[in-house]
Design goal:
about 350 residues; alpha/beta; Rossmann fold; six-stranded mixed sheet; globular; binds flavin mononucleotide
Length: about 350
Amino acid sequence: MNTARDLIIYYFSGTGNSKQVALWWAEATLKKGIAARVVDITTVTNPNSLEINSDSLMLIVSPTHGFNYPPVTIRFIRRLPRGKNLVVLANTRAGLKIGRFITPGLSGITFMLSAILLLSKGYKLGGLISFDMPSNWLSIHPALSAESANYIFHSMQQKVQRYADKLFDGQSVFPALRDLIQDLLISPVAIGYYLAGRFFLAKSFYASNACTSCGLCEKNCPLHAIKKSRKRPYWTFRCESCMKCMNSCPQEAIQTTHGLWVLLFGLTFLIMGLLQPILADYYRTFAGKLALFTLILLALVAILYPIQYVLIKNRRINAAITYMSLTFYKFWGRYRCK
Ligand SMILES: Cc1cc2nc3c(=O)[nH]c(=O)nc-3n(C[C@H](O)[C@H](O)[C@H](O)COP(=O)(O)O)c2cc1C
């Protein structure tokens, strides 16, 4: 039997999946007669000053973004005080339903990096568990149907109960280790996303003509990444693409600029071609080419996003960009965690 006197659950959640998993854990823990507390990490201003009882069991739940915990979660773990507590790491991933099967998402370096950070602070690892919740990554795929999402929900709630039972019976709860090989294989992409990809994605959002300037996206952004200028939302580089804004906008006015992605990639390749005679040394290796491509792409994003922001105030230009956004079309839908 695990001897923890209570469970403290720290979570980050964009669209509600990780929050839901945190709440299921609290419920399962309370059923065992053990106290449970659920804390949203975005409400903790200084993790370093947290006073955590040495015999409390800790659970951290967060989505996976680009095969890693998002920066907000890593920052939280990095800033935790030193401690000797047992910590269980959990992530929620992109689950899809095919027939009766729930296909697993990919964790990449999610657990490796966080485990190293925690162990270096003196914590002990009590478990590593992934929960394949309905995918919320609507910049790249349409929303799951309500029926598929409900099926996945039901299955993951049972998984929480199963692992809570095991954990409090003192059994090993490291099922995520089974994914180690595929996680190691995907780790270069995880590093690439963390260093560069997320900045590109953060600048793919804009508000279409349907925006009523209600301010909800700005008010509810967990990372305070949206600013409003002349009544329209503007996404800063603080954005971690958690999808809360897009999935909860009452007008479904927040879109991803898919059409402009194509133009942006085209422009980046064009500049790469023009620079080749000058920077021939960088073109000799794949790593050199990739680094250059990424730098040019990010520089273009930084320059063109403010220009796009001004241009989309023109209703015709806005409409043209919107017709090139897959997220605008009805079939794409939105993901709302129930
Ligand atoms: C920007 C972004 C990146 C994502 N990357 C991954 C990933 O690498 N692997 C994965 O399995 N799921 C990935 N997902 C899916 C989410 O991790 C998953 O839907 C999660 O349950 C969302 O949790 P939340 O509702 O608490 O924010 C990604 C989602 C987003 C928005």
